[in-house]
Amino acid sequence: MNTDMNIHEYIAHYAKEVEDELKRLFPQEWDIPGILRESAQYSLDAGGKRLRPILVLAAAEAFGGRMEAAMPVACAIEMIHTYSLIHDDLPAMDNDDYRRGKLTNHKVFGEAMAILAGDALLTQAFYTASQARSLGVPAEQVLAILSEMAEYSGARGMVGGQVADMQAEQGATDLNGLEYIHLHKTSDLIIFSLRAGGRVAGADEKQLEALTRYGRSIGLAFQIQDDILDVTGTLEKLGKPAGSDEKQQKVTYPFFIGLDESMQRVRELTDEAVSAVSSGTVSNPQRLLELADYLMKRDR
Amino acid sequence: MNTDMNIHEYIAHYAKEVEDELKRLFPQEWDIPGILRESAQYSLDAGGKRLRPILVLAAAEAFGGRMEAAMPVACAIEMIHTYSLIHDDLPAMDNDDYRRGKLTNHKVFGEAMAILAGDALLTQAFYTASQARSLGVPAEQVLAILSEMAEYSGARGMVGGQVADMQAEQGATDLNGLEYIHLHKTSDLIIFSLRAGGRVAGADEKQLEALTRYGRSIGLAFQIQDDILDVTGTLEKLGKPAGSDEKQQKVTYPFFIGLDESMQRVRELTDEAVSAVSSGTVSNPQRLLELADYLMKRDR
């Protein structure tokens, strides 16, 4: 473990490593239409916190696993996250022109290409994750990772959350409905990332369960923090106007329980996350603890 | 092997088995939005020849494998085929209102839901295929199947073919370009289906190579036959007006080399397919031979 880095340096360091890997996903020698490569790469390069891949790596490290062996899965989950943003931004969905201050995929490459680039990223993610096998992860573990990736990102996971989010309206959805959306739209990929990192390092069922509890808590905290920042943040930091959720009539935590109680909930969930990995089940939880703290305090 | 069925009965029998399995993909006890289940199921139920799953099963049988163990992969490939049709029909893509005489997914459920139902089917396909493990297929083989499924259906495979097809125009694309489109848009899923069936049955590399050659030939023949039927077929049999490719300025084999030579090419490719599995590499090629013949003679 690189104990000489503080958590900000740690995140920056591994975000950069993941980004370098992501540039190599569609090798030049592959005979694929240039525009498809360009469109997929455009969105992969569009920045972001790279939170999910960092959680994969940190979870692997927490059980003494090799970061290198976890890298294919780290890239795969970022590809899935990226495809979901491309599809989410489409005119038929959220109809967003900008994301992180850059034009959205369909504004640059057109709708048809954006749909197909998303499909290609989603599909390729399973290929990329499967490459963990050639880095020494046992076939049974890689297979379990692929199977869970499909579960947590599919109908029972992220896509289910997207559908629920699409159907939700202020006045028609309650706090339970909102929690379903957040759990699946956001927490599920986070839970998957942690479990997959744990599996790369050979974590057992009890250890995976601790990661799941940690992930559910920081995932929900992360999303509530997003809702809070939408109210309190600035355009410069968010890359989108503050208050845009309210304007779009999106259901949010502050809408239901107010800003103060939302902030309180973030602190409680962070405590729960900390407690889930502090009982001794996780061999070396230091980075996971720092990440929970970092996420609670972020302002963008 | 059920030698008492002729090839038409064989196809009907296993199409029915696959359809029964497909109904159980999103179990009622799964807590997913009802509309997502309905939308995905609508397109899975929309009929079609179920050619790809039948090729999985026939390839497994050709090497003495258990049909039951091949069933998850058979369903998975039909899910991938189905998602590709849903996305292909979208207004931003081919903008089709009908498929096989039924309203397309987005005409019934709206565009956003159609995009998400496609995403859910694509994702779930990897989960479904992974279930072959619990039916006794070794983890290494299942992993190889998932990895190849991603390759053959992603950027280097079907999605790449879709992109090339979207960009192709009469006058701007040549016969080589058309072959690229057909190879990836159609043949790749067919090649995958055969290889995956072979893997379920424990086929070795040389045997998988024979299946690949067979698949490349019948895949191309299948697509040329489709082009021919678009010129010569009837609305009643095709579920769409004959001549619709010509009207949409689609590049087709008859457009490049005429009807007679296209028909000749189908016969040649069928001969190549037959020869690929007749040299003794494939233990029991009977159904594969019958399927090649059936596909050449089909009129819808």
UniProtKB/TrEMBL annotation, chains A, B:
Cited CDD domains: Trans_IPPS_HT
Gene Ontology biological process terms from the UniProt entry: terpenoid biosynthetic process
EC number: 2.5.1.10
Substrates-to-products reaction catalysed: isopentenyl diphosphate + (2E)-geranyl diphosphate = (2E,6E)-farnesyl diphosphate + diphosphate
Cofactor(s) essential for the protein: Mg(2+)
PROSITE patterns: POLYPRENYL_SYNTHASE_1, POLYPRENYL_SYNTHASE_2
Single GO MF annotation: (2E,6E)-farnesyl diphosphate synthase activity
Keywords: Isoprene biosynthesis, Magnesium, Metal-binding, Transferase
Keyword Transferase: yes
One Pfam family from the record: polyprenyl_synt
Gene Ontology cellular-component terms listed: cytoplasm
InterPro entries: Isoprenoid_synthase_dom_sf, Polyprenyl_synt, Polyprenyl_synt_CS, Prenyl_diphosphate_synthase
Entry superkingdom: Bacteria
PANTHER family: FARNESYL DIPHOSPHATE SYNTHASE
Family listed: Belongs to the FPP/GGPP synthase family.
Full protein name: Farnesyl diphosphate synthase
